[in-house]
Write a structure and sequence with these properties.
Number of strands of chain B: 8
Number of helices of chain A: 8
Strand order of the largest sheet of chain B: 1-2-3-8-7-6-5
Helix content of chain A: 55-70%
Number of strands of chain A: 1
Radius of gyration of chain B: 20 Å
Structural class of chain B: alpha+beta
Shape of chain A: globular
Distance between the termini of chain B: 26 Å
Structural class of chain A: mainly alpha
Shape of chain B: globular
Oligomer: heterodimer
Strand content of chain A: under 5%
Number of domains of chain B: 1
Order of helices and strands of chain B: HHHEEEEEEEEHH
Number of domains of chain A: 2
Largest sheet of chain A: none
Order of helices and strands of chain A: HHHHEHHHH
Largest interface: A-B, 82 and 60 residues
């Protein structure tokens, strides 16, 4: 926690205690480890920037989740617009492989099919175990929106993965696989 | 059960190095940038307000500005709105006083033109202080974010229209002179709130004009109405200026997310 003089004492300790959890959440949001690490790093840098406020918050870990989620959503919005409209001449066009040659259905792939905000709600609600009220406040929307989005998203995840995969996935088949 | 699946999915992630020292270093830089931007933004806003219309007309010789933006349209002063950065938002970059004033002037020109060309249902237009591409419009008592981005982007071209109805619809439009635009209507944030966007190129820059929905309401402006703005010769003059004297930097590599 910062001292009354507003020093940064406590930040590094907090960062070390929070980084793994943030990283795992970021991974579920982004879908790849490298981007998740960048997102975690950016989140921690932003927390340090506002550490006087963040460190004094009643729940600094909740504050960190808010920063992580909003950073993720802001970046996705920016990227979506750019990806929609522009492409680099002669460069590689990032294209999603919808064929998935090995047909391995992963939780990450299923999550990636949800819109970013719906994905964030699912991750916050079911991974972070936050209440509907807290998710609504964090996402700046109504509780009804959170409930309906989560319900719709769960149905889509079930469709995509199948109940059996969710319940009986063998983690040894593939580190990130839910079923094969 | 979903939680267990998530747990399994994330438990074998490669280990992280200690991110704290780098976070401190990056965070210090962010603090320094934010402090300087606040100082520069306040100076720019005060300067623009004090100079008022004379600044807009480019007639004040005391302010060093490289080739002032064109000023051939109504020039009521649009008071900038201060938007408090929220956690997670990228801090604006540090600018010199002259550059801040130039950006503020450009925003005034854009605001004046939007004021004239957007439908009458748009009641108020205000630039966002310190964020040259950001504006806020008010319609029916609700505020909506507007973006006009003119960013250097040599080597990038417009993609083909991507349609994913009903979430995204795209129409191609001819702007004349060999220029084309794409007009998008797309669900933003929620499936039931639509935003509008027009993208095109001018010179070496990529251009994006958009109106986002509020938290609960769709944008009060359609893509066709944005296209009217983009087709106006005075808008082209603004693009010409911003292409020759960029007010935004080339895209940096994406950080995070």
């Amino acid at each position: 926690m910062p001292s009354p003089l507003g020093s940064d004492v406590g930040f590094e300790e907090f960062a070390r205690s929070a980084q793994t959890r943030l990283y795992r959440t970021a991974y579920l949001l982004c879908g790849d480890a490298e981007t998740a690490r960048d997102l975690t790093q950016t989140t921690l840098a932003k927390l340090f920037q506002h550490w006087r406020r963040a460190g004094a918050a009643e729940h600094p870990h909740a504050y960190a989740k808010t920063v992580l989620t909003r950073t993720f959503l802001a970046e996705r919005r920016r990227r979506l617009r750019d990806l929609l409209a522009f492409t680099r001449t002669g460069g590689l066009v990032p294209a999603r492989n919808t064929e998935q040659p090995d047909l391995r259905v992963t939780l990450l792939a299923a999550l990636a099919e949800l819109p970013p905000r719906a994905r964030a709600m699912v991750v916050l609600r079911y991974w972070e175990d936050l209440s509907v009220e807290t998710v609504a406040s964090l996402m700046r929307c109504s509780e009804a929106t959170v409930k309906s989005q989560c319900s719709r998203s769960l149905a889509r995840l079930r469709d995509r993965l199948g109940e059996a995969h969710l319940y009986t996935a063998d983690p040894h088949l593939h580190p990130y696989a839910i079923g094969s | 059960m979903l939680r267990r699946a998530m747990d399994r999915t994330t438990q074998d992630l490669p280990p992280l190095p200690d991110l704290a020292p780098v976070a401190v270093r990056l965070g210090r830089r962010r603090r320094a940038r934010a402090r300087l931007t606040v100082a520069g933004g306040v100076f720019g806003t005060v300067t623009a307000a004090a100079l008022g219309l004379s600044l807009l007309s480019g007639a004040d010789p005391g302010v060093a500005m490289p080739a002032a933006p064109p000023a051939a349209f109504p020039s009521a002063y649009h008071t900038p709105v201060q938007v408090r950065p929220t956690p997670g938002q990228q801090p604006p970059e540090k600018l010199s006083d002259a550059e801040s004033a130039r950006h503020a002037q450009f925003q005034q020109q854009v605001s004046a033109l939007l004021d004239e060309l957007l439908p009458a249902s748009v009641e108020d237009i205000r630039p966002v202080a310190g964020e040259v591409s950001s504006y806020r419009i008010t319609a029916g008592g609700t505020t909506f974010p507007v973006t006009l981005s003119v960013r250097p982007a040599e080597g990038e071209r417009l993609q083909e229209c991507r349609n994913q109805p009903p979430k995204i619809t795209c129409e191609k439009a001819d702007l004349g002179g060999g220029r084309t635009a794409q007009v998008y209507a797309m669900a933003v944030n929620r499936t039931d709130t639509l935003g509008a966007m027009v993208v095109t190129r001018y010179g070496r820059s990529k251009v994006l004009l958009s109106v986002d929905p509020s938290d609960t309401a769709s944008a009060p402006v359609t893509g066709a109405q944005l296209l009217t703005v983009v087709r106006d010769a005075r808008f082209t003059d603004l693009l010409k200026y911003a292409d020759a004297h960029p007010v935004q930097k080339k895209d940096a590599p994406v950080e995070g997310g």
